[in-house]
C-alpha cells in the first residue's frame, strides 16, 4: 500500500486590527466604549469562510458586529438577574463565534463585565413555561433596545425569513435561511 501525503498550503492573510474609525462608528451606534473596542476582526474573518465559518458576507459580519455589541451593551445597562436580555439569532451567532476565540473572549469579558460573561443556551427549551418566559424576555429586550438605542431591533435585511420575528424565531423558518 502506498500512502500519499498531500500537502495543502494556506496563505492566511490576517485582518488589520479594529480601527479607531470603526470604534468611533460603533460608539456612535450607542455601543459602550469598552465593548466598541473589542477587536472581532479575526472572528468576522472566520465567519466569512465558507468551510471554516458560515460564509457570511463582510457586510453581514459588519452588521452582526453592531447588533452583537449592542446586545452586550444592553447586558451592561440591564444586568442579570434583574433582567434577562435575549439575543436574536444574528447576535447569538456572533456571540458563539466570539466565545470560540477563548482568549479574546475571556479578555473582553474581563474588561467589560469584570469576569466571564456566561452563555446559557437552554432558555426557552425547558418546557412550556420556560418558552413563554423566553418570549416575554425577548419582548422586554426589544423594548429596552428601543429605549437605549432609539431604534427598533430589526432583522438583518439579507435574511429570507418571511415573517416579522426579529430573527428570534418562534416559527418554522427555512433551513436555507442564512441566519438560522
Question: Please, could you describe this protein's structure?
Answer:
This protein is mainly α and 180 residues long. The chain has one domain. It has 7 helices and no strands. Helix 3 crosses helix 4 and helix 4 packs across helix 5. It starts with 19 loop residues before the first helix and ends in a 31-residue tail after the last helix. The C terminus is likely disordered.
Main sheet overview: none
- SSE pattern, N- to C-terminal: HHHHHHH
Number of strands: 0
Q: How far is it from the N-terminal to the C-terminal residue, by CA?
A: 45 Å
The tally of domains stands at 1
Q: What is the molecular shape? A: globular
Residues in helix, %: 40-55%
Average pLDDT score: 85
Structural class: mainly alpha
Tally of contiguous helical segments: 7
β-strand percent reads under 5%
Keywords:
180 residues, disordered C terminus, mainly alpha
Write the layout of secondary structure elements.
Elements: H1 20-28, H2 33-36, H3 41-48, H4 58-77, H5 89-100, H6 102-113, H7 128-149
Give a concise summary.
The chain has seven helices and no strands. By secondary structure, it is mainly alpha-helical. The C terminus is likely disordered.
